[in-house]
Design a protein that fits this description.
alpha+beta, five-stranded antiparallel beta sheet, 30% strand, globular
Length: 186
């Protein structure tokens, strides 16, 4: 028996990422962006209104989000309540955070490379694991005994998780733009 499991959904979605990437870079030129969890990089203002170039992505997020929400017990349908673009350049990263006032959160990877910055999830019991367990006595780290879990994303990956799950993005150690689209669902 596993108590209090933390579900995370990952699926590679086949979309026209070249077109999405061009659109994201175009929006960056038009929007100075905002500061949230990002240290460096560009966090767009909230995307509002019609974004035809992103409509297929919005549809996939809504469809997969509803399927995942149903699997974890949600009765009512959910929709995108907030969506934005992140572009991290060399050494840019996002500090640990969670997303308030929504059911699920997620990210879609438009452009990512090796050493482009993994997404790291913090175990909800991270402080207790770090202070009470001697990690030198752990034979094999698993999702049960680790205080963090790092996911190596690929271009086209859609990742969904409960909005209360703390996460961060490691520094982009490449000279290529790490481009992702993050969102909340309620």
């Amino acid at each position: 028996m596993n108590l209090f499991e933390v579900p995370v959904y990952v699926e590679n979605i086949k979309l026209d990422n070249k077109s999405i990437l061009q659109y994201c870079k175009k929006l960056k030129k038009e929007d100075k962006g905002i500061a949230r969890s990002n240290i460096g990089g560009w966090h767009s203002s909230e995307l509002k209104g019609k974004h035809i170039k992103l409509q297929n992505l919005f549809n996939e997020i809504t469809e997969k989000g509803n399927s995942f929400a149903k699997q974890i017990g949600k009765k009512n349908k959910i929709n995108i309540t907030k969506i934005w673009i992140n572009i991290n350049n060399y050494k840019d990263y996002n500090q640990s955070h969670f997303h308030a006032n929504c059911f699920l959160s997620g990210v879609y990877y438009v452009n990512i490379f090796d050493k482009g910055g993994r997404i790291v999830f913090d175990n909800p019991a991270q402080d207790l694991i770090d202070s009470n367990w001697d990690t030198t006595d752990i034979d094999n780290f698993t999702t049960v005994n680790s205080s963090t879990y790092s996911l190596v994303p690929n271009i086209g990956d859609l990742v969904l998780f409960p909005s209360w799950l703390k996460h961060k993005v490691e520094p982009n150690m490449t000279n290529q733009d790490r481009v992702s689209i993050s969102f909340n669902l309620s």
